[in-house]
Amino acid sequence: MSHDFKMADDTKNILALLNGIAKRNYYGETDITDEFLKQEIFPSFTDEDFSNLLSKCSSLIKSMVSADMDLNQSEVYLTSQMKKPEGGITENQANAFRKFWKIHKNKIHEAVISHSTWNNTLKHVSWRIDIQSQARHIDQINAPTAIMELQLGPKTTNTQKSEVVRFEMDEAKLGSVLQTMQDIENEVNKYCQQ
C-alpha cells in the first residue's frame, strides 16, 4: 500500500513523529532510529513512504529551527505550507506542528545553542561607575572609572563553578568598548537583513 505525505493525516501520529525527530536530532537521544519510529508510529507505511514522510517532517522542523521562528512566524510558515498544491501539509498536520513548536521551541533553541558552544559562556554582567576621591596624582581625582564584573561558566548548569572576572576601565577605554559593541551590532544587523 502506497502512502503520500497527505495520507499521514493523524495529528497524534505526526506529533509523535515530530517528538521523535526532536529527541534524536536536537536532544541527543541517538538510540531512536528510523526503523524504531516507523514501527512505533507508522507500521503500515512502506520504507520508501516512511522515509519521504520523515524527510518532509525533518525538513519543516529544520526550517523552523534555523529561522528561530516565533509562534506568529511559525503560523505564517505553516499556513504557506498548507497552501502548496504539491508537497503541502494538511490542517491536521499543521496542528501537530503548531502544538509541537509551542512545546519544543525554547527547548530546541537552548539545545542548538548548547551544541554550538564549546567553551565557557557569559552568564552575568554587572557594572558600576566609581569616582576617584583620592589619587597619587591630582588629575586622577574625580575621574570616572567603570568597574566591570563578568561571571563566566560552563555551558551546562550542573554543579561546576562559575568564574568571576573583575576589571576597571577609564572613560576612554569604556568609550572604545562601547564603539566596538556598536560596530558588532551593525555588522550583525547587516548580515540579518541580507
Write up this protein.
This protein is of the alpha+beta class. It has two domains: 5-115, no CATH class; 121-193, no CATH class. It is 53% helix and 15% strand. The protein is built from six helices and three strands. The protein has helices at 11-25, 34-41, 47-66, 71-82, 91-115, 171-193; strands spanning 121-131, 144-153, 163-170. The chain has a three-stranded antiparallel sheet with strand order 1-2-3. Helix 1 crosses helix 3 (47-66) and helix 1 (11-25) packs parallel to helix 5. The radius of gyration is 25 Å and the shape is elongated.
Which sequence of strands runs across the widest sheet? 1-2-3
Distance between the termini: 45 Å
Share of residues in strands:
5-15%
- The number of distinct helices, counting runs of at least 4 residues, comes to 6
Which structural category do the helix and sheet elements fall into? Answer: alpha+beta
Average of pLDDT: 87
Question: Helix and strand string, N-terminal first?
Answer: HHHHHEEEH
Total strands: 3
C-alpha geometry? elongated
Residues in helices, as a percent range: 40-55%
